[in-house]
Amino acid sequence: MAQEVLRLQNLQKSFGSVRALKNASFTLGEGEVVALLGDNGAGKSTLIKAISGVFPVDRGEIYVRGQKVSIRSTRDAMDLGIETIHQDTSLAPDLSIARNLFLGREPVNLKWLGVFAPLDLAKLRDAASALLKRVGISKKLDADALVSTLSGGERQSIAISRAMQFAAKVIILDEPTNNLGVEETHGVLRFVKEVRDAGHSVLLITHNIHHVFQVADRIIVMRRGEIVAEQTVADTDLLTVESIITGADMSALLREARAK
Amino acid sequence: MTIAAEEEMPGAKRGSSLIRSPQFSSLIILIVLLTVFAVADANFLSPLNISNMMAFLPELGIIALGMTLLLTAGEFDLSVGAVFGLAPVVVMLLVQNGEASIGVALLAGLILCVAIGAINGLIVTKIGISSFLVTLSMLLVVRGAALYITQGFPLKSWDQPGFFVTLLAGSFNIGSFRFYTSLWWFVGLSLLAIYILRYAKLGNWISAIGSNRNAAVARGVPADAVKIWLFILTSVLAGLAGMISAFRISAASPVAGTGYELEVIAMVVVGGTALTGGRGTILGTIVGALMLRAIRNGIVLIGVPGLAYNIFVGVIILAMLILHALLQKNAARG
Ligand SMILES: Nc1ncnc2c1ncn2[C@@H]1O[C@H](COP(=O)(O)OP(=O)(O)OP(=O)(O)O)[C@@H](O)[C@H]1O
Ligand SMILES: [Mg+2]
After folding, report:
1. What is the CATH number of the domain that holds B26?
2. Which residues form a coiled coil (chain A) (predicted)?
3. Considering the entire predicted model, what is its pTM?
4. Higher model confidence: residue B220 or residue B68?
């Protein structure tokens, strides 16, 4: 495997009596696309929220490039080069595209004024336009347009380009193709490939196994808070993965394990 | 992947969005109202009446500035009217009991406001109770405290001229108009609020938090801290307004500011700030503050019976909100 970028070891997280994450460990290599699969409630979002600093884990360790790190806030994760596009939240609809692209990392003048520093509006707009051009959605989108006027696919593209722009080591996408049309879905998958080709690692959560086989190098399957299988895409097929996810065909699983 | 306004020229787009913007429609209505009042009663634009309106305007207007920022971040504060009453009462009690000089007492009053705002903010953000419930309870606590420590009696306010009186409630004449220094407070604070909301990094955060809190948090924006500071700001501005008012009329009443919370929220939403957060406009709030002031004043002048005037105020507010909602719907359809 390529050089290790992110390694999780024995992550555990409970919400009251719900053990959302029981004992999750895996490794993500440089320039690798790993698909994280599992049924609703399997703990996928919980896992990536822990990595991206939305909430702390109860136990376990996270290593970035071999260094043990503690991720206590979303800011910590961003500073470590981990950019996440969450399932339920990514953009502020009442803000312009440009303001969304730089939210939390606004270019400012007079930096010493802290949070009262004036935004560098010219730079904000220029950088946003350049970025929109780079990801190939420039023709129609105005950096000053409000995000509330965009389609779901356009929003997703904006969120992904935002993750790309900060040259993150790891980009995490939680169900990025949800609710998207055919064309938009292809756009997102194309982004994933572009991002990988640019040297970023991608952790992709999805319910669509076909997408997985199009873009992923490796598959990780979760069930009830645990990682139950890990396979390279080349070594498996659609039906096998499907049965692992649902847990329907345990015998096939066992056979596989023995065969290895 | 197309957006509706694609064919329009960028300039045209910006122009039409200004005309469609809520603060602009509020401004038009304000001008219409002022014209109607001026035609109906010549006294409406008399120096005396304008001076009168300008004396009241800043006191609610200053609170409305804080409330606009708070609403934009997705929260609101019902305790402002009570804080408006309590702060000057505490100041005057400290002075009258000889426990502090006027300067120290004012400072103590403001610190009390900071504490009230901080408690509101901490309970809302850290315990996760809606700001409606938290600040409604705080309204009762604060109003109750003002009544209890005064035993319900108004206090005679500090009326000896001096630095602080001039600073908060000094007055000056321009021609036959009489203006209070509070107007400068309002102008200065308005400019500051416009700067913060539109041009500063903080304003970007405030709008983002109100628009989609989780998205803002995911980008590393300290949403809770921002909200707590906005609660503190709103509380402090309410206390400051209360002190200005008490100095101007030389009396501090424990029931001063009753009902101001709703009046202030009305000013803010009439100006076009969304009650649901994310969209705030200080210019709109200034227009809203002027409008409510003009309505209250004009309605009396044109001879609507005093007891009926809340009917008119309510109807006009409702009409404004309907207008904003229709414009909003139109804009969404593009
Ligand atoms: N904040 C929370 N508080 C309480 N329980 C939670 C919370 N977040 C998640 N859970 C629970 O943890 C479990 C895992 O949820 P998670 O969101 O990680 O699932 P998921 O694999 O992302 O599912 P989906 O495919 O539906 O998005 C679920 O049982 C869920 O109800
Ligand atoms: Mg999920």
Report:
1. 1.10.3470
2. none
3. 0.84
4. B68
